[in-house]
Amino acid sequence: DIQMTQSPSAMSASVGDRVTITCRASQGISNYLVWFQQKPGKVPRRLTYAASSLQSGVPSRFSGSGSGTEFTLTISSLQPEDFATYYCLQQNSYPWTFGQGTKVEIK
Amino acid sequence: QVQLVESGGGVVQPGRSLRLSCAASGFTFSRYSMHWVRQAPGKGLEWVTIISFDGSNKYYADSVKGRFTISRDNSENTLYLQMNSLRAEDTAVYYCARELVSTIFGVVSRDAFDIWGQGTTVTVSS
To answer: I want to staple A94 with a disulfide (CB 3.0 to 4.6 A). Which of A4, A90, B59, B68 is the partner?
Structure first.
């Protein structure tokens, strides 16, 4: 099975900060990588797919990049509504696997 | 509008069974592969299983293999998850989500998890 390692597991940041979350795959997954945002008690929301394609309706301050084994989600200027938990998901092979999550909290 | 609605969750004793349903509307259900994803209380997301658009292919997480069975009825636009031999560690919110698979010049494109259901809660406890 492919392991997805997210870092950091948690972070504190201020409004306006640039935030970068990393996901590393235990083996190459091409660009089969999706990023989600989840707020407490809510359904996950897809932010990007195919590693770098932005989901329709998602603000342009979110961007995804990477290929192979290393991927990043970047929030260019953190907004109050962005405080949430973020997950990556590999879709290269079954079983699909999520990263353990990154909780972004207010500093 | 495009919608997935899960049902069938509840409280069940260890070792018993439960069947979840996911009703789809607003899109051509028979074109989409369908997945179940779960989230235990206070924990992260866990992929559970997938069924292809026509039901011919199914895959499972090791944690549920041999106990859970995914199925679908394209005439009723409904996805199912039969859960047998339930354990305390199966306690979670269960979500269904869709995936559109396409192949262009031999390259597989996966457009997955753009739409999720609201989730149904399964609690396994004596």
So the answer is: B59
